[in-house]
Amino acid sequence: MIRRWWLLLFLPLVLSCVTQERTVKRELIAHAGGVLDGYVYTNSLEALQNAVANGYKYIEADLLLTSDSVLVAAHSWEDFNRMTGNVHRGDSAMTLASFQNQRIHGRYTPLTASMLNDFFMNDTSLYLVTDKVSDPNLLASNFPALKHRMVVEAFTYEHYTRLIDAGYYRVLYSCMATDFYSVIAKHLFFNRLFPGKRIEWIALHTSGFRYRVFKMMDAMRHFRIALFTVDNYNELTPEQLERVDMIYTNTLPPQ
How many domains does the chain fold into? Predict the structure, then answer.
């Protein structure tokens, strides 16, 4: 009996430790496929394969349209042109045919949306995280059976509500949206007059933690946060880390 009482005395401490261990676990997102041979932002087939081999379940791809309106993966046309030895093109978009003929850093395979779709359809344990494009029609036409395993960063409130209604797994309202603070403010202060979809998740840049207006909003409405981009946990205070649910990273290993 004495031993049982001894265990009961220490049970709260044990449960506290277990709870704390759970709270430090974060969902890590391989940013643009994650680092590959020291390169970042490649959005390449090899980066996806490397991310899977390293244990990532959430993998991000930046989406852009070619000059002939086909969806492909690239951080920006300026970055893609630089990585493929076409720096003279600046930020000019390529045709699909030209895009497919390129090799990133001379060796890596560029991804079309069709290739992305096939990759994620072949492994049902993976989640596709998208950036740059949030048009619901464009996403639905290119990834028709993936919405239940897609995390989409929305760049307008209209896209946010339509993606929520369409049943996407997770929709992040982007801090890069031009109406970000005005939409958040409406939800916080005028919710009865603004009967739209509540913002549950936001994609936030690390600098956002420093803004007084965000601190005030977050105190009033506890958002869930996907933070970009963190490659060293020391970049965040313990309090900031505690507030984060997902982290975009190039190099942090999955937990």
Answer: 1
